């Protein structure tokens, strides 16, 4: 765990380029901003190469899934590879909708992803493990989460983050687990999308160690959410969303170290 | 009024599928989440049937009104009918823009809606009653709101919710009115869109009684807004929006019963 | 500076039509609503003329930059001209992406803009002045901001607002500067987009004096943000965003006069 990456991120203010889920796009941009990076969003394929050129990392959210967006995702993924920019994918709802799984699988044959971040149902789908997914939620199942994450990482040859009560981060061999967090993340649509783009921001300052970047981003995000939740007397998803932005901006490495729980 | 539907909704956590207004999509997803259902959003027509299959109700917001979206709305409405899923329509701005009224009218000939939720100007347009509408607002007029709502319900053969200071809910014969609410709803863009999708969530657990579902959803939403407004000393639309999410999650049947005003 | 325009705006409640940045669209709609105008948003070119007809001002945000949106922007700009509605442009990221600059430049040859609102990097690009821009941020540079704004105003024959720590407003000859504000605006994505649409709302009640409208809108917005920031003990971007909506609704001319700093 390299928490000093948070300070580096804030000093270098990397530009994170996003094709973003239309549902959560403003939240994601604000989250990137709050943590200390600089968001840029695009909907137009003609500006892809220029956008990639000025960016330090790319996050592609497969919740943006109309056909023009899929073409855009393909081009941006390939451009990120060609320009050696770290590439993070959030495979929204591939566990619930077979059409999404098929398109996502096709896409990932055409570029090399560095980090995939999804919930258990999504990661299981990418690993071809049976799993019950329901809507955007994680679903439930009996498989061991670490094994699912490892299988997906081996299959896709990248770092995998399986988000949940415990975040599992693996490169297929090494495994880290982050135990911080709060159930309020699940009550706020866009928490996962925001984490995916924050992972990209950490990759931008990681000097190529995406396993380290991924676990640090998970710890920072989960611990920040927990700090906010600890200040609330009740489960207040609206207040949580606003204060999560506050705390992403204010949280320090020392604050996180005090409550960090990982192995 | 069947307030126990709120508890049923929270126990069964129905999936509500939305084609959503691009202006308010995150708010709508968060509102569905907060009340206790599970949102899923789509922009791609190829995944329509699969999405409908995993959903318990469908909400189509005509604020999403580009031509590809209209084609998507048509297909999703027909798929909802074919799969016997309750179908709610929010006819955004059909009272102000004749192009929207024409497209909406055409759409509703091609599938059968279960509930329409709109403001006075929108419902009047669908009932072919003269009414002055201005922008997204309700406009003002002299016609009796109950008669307008009834006329629209008879014409479209469905339940109609005419939202406003008083919500009028009718199946064309029976009429319910909800008197709770707060002017802050009008100051927050997306309140109406959110209500429409929450109506769909209640329809999902209503065992086919959409008149009951519609009025209960209106009471829950209006009373929740009123509870939030009562805690604010001034008209604070931004704070209201955040706390509305909080209270949709926290509000109980007993809280609502204490202030419920309907007939 | 004509602060009485704020009261006029609230009395007449002008409809502001927007082609809006997909990233910030709900925030912009809520901001227009909060200040006392009435927002209407569109994504469909077929409804352009009808939408312009019911509007009192038009704001086109070039963050909406897919090809269908650019066609829509062109048509709406031309319709605004033909119908003598004030036209405000926000040239998002034209300083960072040459493709955007080229498309924006082409667009502005095909309709006449009344006000352009951008950051230093964006305005410099439109004035053909060298400037370093990074992502959506302003970048930094040595040129004198007033000269850049003047050059852009002369080139585009319109009023230019160069937003930043100090807002520079010019018609190419006369110059006003607004010194109010807060760094929190930069931490909240969408502050600039919101200001652009609020400028359009002030133009709607300005009786054609767009230089006056532009500087008054800047003062109202900057001072409102400053009032909110003064109540916060720390830099809280999420809380700031919610309370900015509150204060846009609550702020009075007298409140603004107390802290106004301009020349």
TrEMBL record, chains A, B, C:
GO biological process, one term: thiamine biosynthetic process
Reactions the enzyme catalyzes: 5-(2-hydroxyethyl)-4-methylthiazole + ATP = 4-methyl-5-(2-phosphooxyethyl)-thiazole + ADP + H(+)
SUPFAM superfamilies tied to this protein: Ribokinase-like
Keyword 4Fe-4S: no
HAMAP family for this protein: Thz_kinase
Family membership: Belongs to the Thz kinase family.
Protein name as it appears in the record: Hydroxyethylthiazole kinase
Organism: Secundilactobacillus odoratitofui DSM 19909 = JCM 15043
């Amino acid at each position: 765990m390299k928490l000093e990456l948070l300070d580096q991120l804030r000093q270098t203010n990397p530009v994170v380029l996003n094709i973003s889920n239309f549902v959560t796009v403003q939240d994601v941009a604000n989250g990137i901003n709050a943590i200390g990076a600089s968001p840029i969003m695009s909907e137009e394929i003609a500006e892809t190469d220029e956008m990639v050129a000025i960016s330090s990392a790319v996050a592609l959210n497969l919740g943006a899934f109309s056909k023009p967006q899929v073409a855009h995702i393909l081009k941006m993924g390939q451009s990120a590879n060609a320009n050696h920019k770290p590439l993070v994918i959030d495979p929204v709802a591939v566990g619930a909708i077979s059409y999404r799984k098929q398109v996502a699988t096709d896409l990932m044959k055409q570029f090399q992803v560095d980090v995939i971040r999804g919930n258990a149902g999504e990661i299981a789908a990418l690993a071809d493990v049976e799993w019950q997914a329901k809507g955007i939620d994680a679903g439930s199942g009996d498989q061991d989460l670490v094994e699912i994450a490892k299988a997906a990482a081996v299959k896709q040859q990248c770092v995998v983050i399986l988000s949940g009560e415990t975040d599992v981060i693996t490169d297929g061999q090494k495994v880290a687990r982050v135990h911080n967090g709060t159930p309020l993340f699940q009550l706020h649509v866009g928490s996962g999308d925001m984490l995916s783009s924050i992972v990209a921001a950490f990759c931008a300052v990681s000097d190529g160690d995406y396993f380290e970047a991924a676990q640090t981003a998970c710890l920072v995000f989960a611990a920040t959410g927990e700090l906010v939740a600890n200040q609330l007397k009740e489960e207040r998803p609206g207040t949580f969303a606003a204060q999560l932005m506050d705390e992403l901006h204010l949280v320090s490495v020392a604050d996180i170290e005090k409550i960090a729980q990982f192995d």
